[in-house]
Amino acid sequence: MNVEITPNYSYIFDFENEFIHQDTRVWMVKNWTYVFYYCGIYMAVIFGGQHFMQNRPRFELRGLLAIWNSLLAMFSIMGACRTAPELVHVLRHYGLFHSVCVPSFIEHDRVSGFWTWLFVLSKLPELGDTVFIVLRKQPLIFLHWYHHITVLMYSWFSYTEYTASARWFIVMNYCVHSVMYSYYALRALNFKPPRSIAMLITTLQLTQMVVGCAINIWAHGFLQTAGKGSCNISEMNIKLSIAMYFSYFVLFARFFYKTYLSTNARKGKRSLQSASSNGSSAVQYSSISSSKQASMGGAINSNLLSAAQQTDKVKAQ
């Protein structure tokens, strides 16, 4: 039975149907190197901004933060809904090799292609996450800005090659960001999701890194067996991608341990629970970096505050 290479979408928007992938590739080939300038400006802004804010009061920006996270959550949910069906369809009817080596998700599927293009472009405005951290004078850890700039550079570079394995990376990122930005939006709106949700998000991010490494290993194997003409991914791209995903895994695993499993983290959790039961604590939730800033009426030591500030402040791109 001959199965169509694209899934049977129940509805296709006009802007999706009008997507012409060749035009976007030509634009990206001509302009992708500008990403290095964008990253340079980004670094200057965030570290210059930290210096500027050093002796100034923090901005609250809770309303803007709620709008920002809500928009990114809706975008990510829509992107996941429009790209995941293509990956599932290809796996069911064409198998793992096609999903890793054939870029039909851009070349033959206008719906998935359009949302792939938006995904790549979205990595630039997502740098705005860090601006909120700087203006709100929250801790800016290495993983946060390193993750932002490397995802931006890799995404733009990969689009010039129509890297076939990117369909996996895009679907995973959309899905994780759907949960993550929704969580941040709720916290910006003063809702208090349980700590287990934050742990779930970091677990999903770690899983994303493991799968990313596995896809690159499979891609390398397919290149060796099927040849470069049959698998649309370059050796250079595989090396860059696996180095990026492995570094993310190490950094996220370290963050997970320090935030949820270390002795200080467990002490902080017990102290929070004890203070809450005595009615002496009021924990306010911030967003973007997802730091917890506790305002306690009882005697809570500085280790508790430090542990609370480190909780859930990392995002995966």
From TrEMBL:
It comes from the Eukaryota. The chain crosses the membrane at residues 35-53, 65-85, 142-159, 165-186, 198-218, 238-257. It is a multi-pass membrane protein. Its EC number is 2.3.1.199. It is found in: Membrane. Keywords: Fatty acid biosynthesis, Fatty acid metabolism, Lipid biosynthesis, Lipid metabolism, Membrane, Transferase, Transmembrane, Transmembrane helix. It catalyses: a very-long-chain acyl-CoA + malonyl-CoA + H(+) = a very-long-chain 3-oxoacyl-CoA + CO2 + CoA. It holds the Pfam family ELO. Its main location: membrane. It is an enzyme of class 2 (transferase). Belongs to the ELO family. This is Elongation of very long chain fatty acids protein. It comes from Aedes albopictus.
